[in-house]
Amino acid sequence: MQITVTPDTFRLAQAFTISRGSRTEARVLTARVEAETVTGWGECVPYARYGETLDSVAAQIAGLTLPLDREGLQHALPAGAARNAVDCALWDWQAKRAGKRVWELAGLPAPGPEITAYTLSLDTPEAMRASAAQHAHRPLLKIKLGTEADMPRLEAVRAGAPKSRIIVDANEGWSAEVYAELAPHLVRLGVELVEQPLPAGQDDMLAEIARPLPVCADESCHDRASLPGLKGKYDLVNIKLDKTGGLTEALALRAAALAQGYGVMVGCMVGSSLAMAPAVLLAQGAAVTDLDGPLLLAEDRPHKLHYDAAGVYPPEASLWG
Question: Are 85 and 29 in contact (CB under 8 A)?
């Protein structure tokens, strides 16, 4: 068995901004597992918020002791981007070797398309209204917020897309006071869900203040070990492969979260179709699917995921799985 990892860069169609900063490209790592003349591959997006860089994640992968299977990988690396890339590559390798699809190996029903959110990045109210109007045909819009001056932005998006469903992601950018002030207006404007309104580790107030609309944990939820700390504060969890460390833990987290009464959202970092492909399997039947990464790119992988009015479709075997 051999594992190689290479950096890849994909240009974004336009600058993408959240409360922590902007980017004009998606910088990812591609892992390839080769054994028995079969190659499986997976992608991860190292995230500075979690102390990850391209170099640090590549070094984690390079330090693995081979040969390795998915079970051993769960103990060899912590949850995070490095384990995600290798875990997904091992799933792909196993499927190709067996001549089956990943969902068959995982005992899952054959997947279908899922409606996905489309993300409007943080900008001026005028620019966000124009972007909302441009994408008003989409059934679900996700708005990046997270400042103390968000009401004009929210009003502008609703004016630009009066019929779209809306969810909001604050990316840890609000205080408890700001969120308490904004929450009634979120309800008034038909927002269906707010994602991570308070900083992870500083979110205990969510158990004490009113939650007039569902609150989803993102930065506060990584894997199954996160669940006990969410009780009484969150209604849903946002499962991302780069946080769980791959599809193996993500499937286990989804099962555990549902068993404990949480709704499930399946999200992504800004990456290519290869990064989204395993997550489409995870998103089957989720309360919210947010797998729009490839829609934000100016360029993508060969055999990219298909999107249309029905949503994002499962990957072809020529892409992954």
Answer: yes
**DSSP label at residue 314:** P
Tell how strand 263-266 and strand 118-120 pair up. unpaired
Phi-psi region of 239 (alpha: psi -120 to 50; beta: other; left: phi over 0): beta
pTM more than 0.85: yes
> Where in the sequence numbering do the catalytic residues fall?
144, 240
Q: Is residue 14 within a helix (H) or strand (E), and if so which, with residue range?
A: strand 2-18
End-to-end CA distance of the chain: 19
CA distances from 125 to 121, 157, 166, 183 (A): 11, 8, 16, 19
Cis amide prior to 67 (ω within 30 degrees): yes
- Phi–psi pair at 317, nearest 5 degrees: -60, -25
Are 279 and 273 a contacting pair, CB within 8 Å? no
Instruction: List per-residue pLDDT tens for the chain, 321 residues long.
Output: 999 999 999 999 988 888 777 889 999 999 999 999 999 999 999 999 999 999 999 999 999 999 999 999 999 999 999 999 999 999 999 999 999 999 999 999 999 999 999 999 888 999 999 999 999 999 999 999 888 789 999 999 999 999 999 999 999 999 999 999 999 999 999 999 999 999 999 999 999 988 899 999 999 999 999 999 999 999 999 999 999 999 999 999 999 999 999 999 999 999 999 999 999 999 999 999 999 999 999 999 999 999 999 999 999 999 999
